[in-house]
Structure prediction request, 82 residues.
Amino acid sequence: MSWNHMMKGSYMIHGHAHNNREAFYFSMSQQMPNLLNAGVEINGYRPVNFDDLVKNNEIFKSEHTEKEAITEMEKGINALAE
Prediction:
């Protein structure tokens, strides 16, 4: 859970974590805004740009329930499609 230049504001973008809020590392990742999950589940099953990746991670890491987080992501996807 650390990377080069972590303390200088750099980002760590990772996959393979999916959207598992029950995993032991989830509570730690909530405290690390520059640790970004690039998994398809939290990114609307599509490629996203960096700004959307940050926003989707903020939503996912928030205290929303998983259902609420998915609804928020779907709203964002629909807004982009309009």
In short: The chain has a mean pLDDT of 83. The helical segments are 26-30, 50-61, 66-81. The chain is about 40% helix and 5% strand. The longest strand covers residues 12-14.
